[in-house]
Recover the amino acids of this structure.
């Protein structure tokens, strides 16, 4: 059985398949109520150097719901980072006050650096455009919950595949499974070439597609937001964003059992009229953040 | 017309010959090694080569290059050969070896990488050897090694 005690969770590249499967199993036990109170007496620091709603609140809910305590900041302006303190020094201080650190940072590699100087486990809640492993765990948990397993499944990833760290983490994690990937994105926002290299090295089948042609093949359509600020020309944004939008009419391209996922927040890439469709599972997906993060914290602190 | 010049680049008595540098990387290798180097240096560019197509060649009179310098050459010219010369004879054929992990020699070109913001030693994993492609240990960006990634120190 994989032993997570003391392990920092920084990137999907550090995670073996058996560790991911073990985490998903334990998350299922938390969700079903088989595991309770797993963080009793534990203190978690929540250091958010970049704004977050779901990640921060679901981590905090996870800690409180399992009997632990949580402290920290949601705004770096409230920390000594504002006074010029280095990340390493912040972590060396905070590790003395807690049993685990959850952090998000706008700098890529910040979580890796923190894990190297910390004596308590560090969980990466997102580092710039790099990784967001806990989002990936809850994505995988939701997929397995809905379809039983990932092997043989076809997953479409749509929207901003270039800057979307959830896409980067998820595509790396999916290399552990026998899946086929469809990348649906404007060419300006296609997934960085080194992810293609990584997928090729893991012998994962992938194609660049459009929703009309691949929709009937998909088990999951994973949408992400196209951010306006990525475009120099607002007209170009309007043109592109409209093409990668899901509304009631685009549901026709999908199978009756193609689930629609999104890491949220959404702006207008999924129309609200889609929310009531049984295939729309993005809020359920977000709620799964709580059992998954509870299980992960319990595992790294050795209480599960 | 037949090229019957005796030497295109003169022989050296003592020093180092770096050969089979894939063109046009010769000047980049020269820049790497020329800091604080007052030795006589001959450079030949664009020779025909069976192994690399066009090659560059550098000869340093009176300079034996260090292990760290060899490692740097390996990153931008992995096919190069290094011969140490004494009394006009090759006394050592040094193997160019691209390591699995590189610490300190390269810098990450991602401006938003922690290594460019805080004082952190650079670390890279080599993901491909010819040409050398590396992944930053911190920001996880992968890039082919270019001369401007090599730390000038």
């Amino acid at each position: 059985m994989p032993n997570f005690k003391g392990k920092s969770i920084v990137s999907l590249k550090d995670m073996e398949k058996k560790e991911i499967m073990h985490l998903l199993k334990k998350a299922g036990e938390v969700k079903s109520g088989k595991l309770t109170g797993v963080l009793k007496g534990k203190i978690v620091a929540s250091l958010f150097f970049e704004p977050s709603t779901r990640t921060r609140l679901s981590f905090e809910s996870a800690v409180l719901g399992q009997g632990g305590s949580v402290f920290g900041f949601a705004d770096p302006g409230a920390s000594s980072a504002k006074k010029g303190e280095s990340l390493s020094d912040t972590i060396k201080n905070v590790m003395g006050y807690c049993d685990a650190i959850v952090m998000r940072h706008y700098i890529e590699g910040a979580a890796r650096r923190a894990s190297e100087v910390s004596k308590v486990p560090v969980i990466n809640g997102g580092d710039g455009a790099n990784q967001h492993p806990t989002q990936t765990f809850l994505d995988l948990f939701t997929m397995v919950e809905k379809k039983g397993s990932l092997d043989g499944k076809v997953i479409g990833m749509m929207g901003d595949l270039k800057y979307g760290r959830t896409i980067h983490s998820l595509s790396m994690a999916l290399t552990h499974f026998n899946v086929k990937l469809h990348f649906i994105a404007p060419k300006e926002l296609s997934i960085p070439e080194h992810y293609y290299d990584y997928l090729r090295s893991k012998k994962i089948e992938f194609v660049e597609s459009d929703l009309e042609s691949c929709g009937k093949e998909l088990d999951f359509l994973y949408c992400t937001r196209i951010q306006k600020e990525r475009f120099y020309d607002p007209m170009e944004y309007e043109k592109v964003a409209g093409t990668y939008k899901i509304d009631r009419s685009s549901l026709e391209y999908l199978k009756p059992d193609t689930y629609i996922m999104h890491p949220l927040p959404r702006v207008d890439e999924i129309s609200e009229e889609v929310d009531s469709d049984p295939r729309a599972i993005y809020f359920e997906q977000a709620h799964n953040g709580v059992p998954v993060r509870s299980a992960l914290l319990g595992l790294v602190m050795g209480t599960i | 017309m037949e090229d019957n010049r005796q030497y295109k680049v003169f022989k050296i008595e003592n020093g180092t010959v770096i050969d089979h540098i894939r063109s046009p990387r010769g000047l980049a290798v020269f820049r790497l090694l020329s800091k604080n180097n007052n030795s006589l240096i001959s450079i030949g560019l664009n020779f025909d080569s069976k192994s690399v197509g066009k090659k560059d060649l550098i000869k340093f009179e009176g300079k034996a290059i260090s292990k760290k310098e060899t490692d740097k050459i390996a990153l931008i010219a992995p096919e190069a050969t290094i011969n140490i010369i004494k009394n006009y004879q090759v006394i050592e054929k040094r193997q160019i070896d691209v390591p699995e992990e590189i610490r300190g020699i390269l810098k990450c070109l991602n401006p938003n990488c922690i290594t460019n913001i805080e004082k952190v030693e650079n670390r890279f994993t080599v993901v491909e050897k010819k040409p050398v492609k590396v992944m930053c240990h911190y920001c996880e960006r992968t890039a082919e090694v270019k001369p401007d990634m090599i730390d000038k120190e």
About this structure: Residues 67-76 of chain B form the longest helix (10 residues). The interface with chain A takes residues 110, 112-115, 117-120, 127, 135-143 of chain B (CB under 8 Å). Chain B has two domains: 15-94, 101-149. The mean pLDDT of chain B is 87.
